[in-house]
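Journal club prep, notes for RB
We'll compare a predicted complex against what the paper describes. Inputs for the guanosine-5'-triphosphate case:
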Amino acid sequence: MDAIVNLYRRDRDERPAPQDAAGRPSREDAEAAVRTLIRWAGDDPEREGLLDTPKRVVKAYEELFSGYRASEAEVLAKVFEEVEGYGDIVLVRDIPFHSHCEHHMVPFVGKAHIAYYPSRGVVGLSKLARVVDVFAKRLQTQETMTAQIANAIDDFLKPRGVAILVEAEHMCMSMRGVQKGGVSTLTTQFTGVFREDPTEQVRFMTLVRGLR
Ligand SMILES: Nc1nc2c(ncn2[C@@H]2O[C@H](COP(=O)(O)OP(=O)(O)OP(=O)(O)O)[C@@H](O)[C@H]2O)c(=O)[nH]1
Ligand SMILES: [Zn+2]
């Protein structure tokens, strides 16, 4: 388990800063690349219905991959130190997200469930959903995304522990390739008390699956 966590930490540390725009192609270059892909798919980028498509696709990419220009540090910067006697799990479940796998650049779509045990403070609940999007809106694997979310909350909040469950359907498995629709992939990451104490993991899973 430690080896896996360390792998992800190393992976995260060695990534080029996502905000670094050096070497980024121009908008015109990106639009030309879309025209090439349209031709590769077998259509004519000069026909009426497709004329504005490269522009739209590039604009959509700005939105779908906005995570490269977002920072978990900014999202999690505001910690409320006052917990006023609360010392149990905070769980925010069913956070919807959509991401793109780094293998095919095809969407994977699902939900994240995030819990932490506060120690020195809590964050606004929306920040947990925002931190999901920081990482979801980049190219990656579900495993990496799960680890990155857990590590970010661990690093910035310094809680007694973090537990994350991510469940998603990968369109690269349903729309192409093996063509198995409706398959769920579940990934988890536990730190601190959740990693050390299996009963806390069970409690987390029970709360995630519990009363609706
Ligand atoms: N572990 C992991 N695998 C993923 C994820 N997203 C996609 N994949 C897998 O990435 C693999 C890529 O396999 P390759 O053999 O290199 O590519 P491929 O020929 O397109 O594979 P097929 O999807 O089996 O057709 C596939 O097995 C995908 O199911 C992810 O988030 N995590
Ligand atoms: Zn894929």
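Talking point for the session: The chain is about 45% helix and 20% strand.
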